Amino acid sequence: MSLTADPPACTVPAAGGTSTHKLVNGGADKLIFKIKSSNNNEYRITPVFGFIDPSGTKDINITRTAGAPKEDKLAAFAAVTPAGTVTIPMSATA
């Protein structure tokens, strides 16, 4: 099983903004994914969960509301049977 994010990092203005990423299933099995954030007050992610076909991709949108500049993380958990993660480092710039 192989789950990656493209691009692998997210940088948005501290004043707010949106970034689009692809979750990429590099494996031969259909995956189920769920995304968790270290900062649910300032980030909204859509979709939060879903399916990715073998060798397929799924677009995710990361939206940041206005707030102080800081570092946060997203973790996407994928599994045929729950196992495997990808972390997307995020930074809000002034």
From TrEMBL:
It holds the Pfam family Motile_Sperm. Residues 2-94 form the MSP domain. PROSITE patterns: MSP (PS50202). It comes from the Eukaryota. Signal peptide: none annotated. This is MSP domain-containing protein.
